[in-house]
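Researcher: Here's a chain I'd like modeled. Treat it as a single chain, no partners, no ligands.
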Amino acid sequence: MSILDSLRPAAGLRVLVTAGGAGIGAAIARAFHEAGSSVHVCDVDRAALDRLTAETPAITASMADASVAADVDLVFDDVRGTLGGLDVLVSNAGIAGPTGPIESIDASAWERTVDVNLNSQYYFARRAVPLLRQSTASPCLIAMGSVAGRLGYPFRTPYASTKWAIVGLVKSLAIELGPSGIRANAILPGTVEGPRMDAVIAARAEALGIGVDAMRERYLEKISLRRMVTANDVAALALFLCTPAARNLTGQAISIDGNVEYL
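Model: Modeled as a single isolated chain. Structure tokens:
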């Protein structure tokens, strides 16, 4: 195999993307579909799923809350029917969580952030691993982390805590699953353009009592390249991690962030 050929994922990979209806998840789902994979997504947002499947009918979908174990079980019932197995899990579900000083964060908001961002990783991994063990296509588990999983993030402690935990989960799974030929990596996006980031910036601006434009400029000043990344940048990295060129990449937390220097 030439080096150029090794940069292409094998055709026919069976891929599950959680929170795949919109944003980064949808970009990843579309990228794998364009590369010749069979793709199934799940999402809590029915309208987003309907838009995605209308645009790309070959992508199949399940309505599910990734933080609810019973919903996850139903997703895997669908995966068996639509994909017949699994070669790649992209565990992408996550929420921004509350913004504010630790003493003002409501316990229910903290718990919801942990449920969606961290517990969902466990629910999907425990169901995916038996299927990945049966794969002969260099199976991969990709967990979506964040630059907040390598840096401290004041006023965003629930979010940062879960993203640091994801790195620990992936590094542990890489050791646990490596003898079975399963690779596990985390992608750590930085500031990603889009409506979700707009909302985060607005909430942070309110918490600090400054204008939204000023808050946006503060974000850009922290990035060495002085620009945000896009959902397609993240999707390209996910695709690369499933190519033969990445066959020895496991246990890694890979930042794609323009080098965020601090948060």
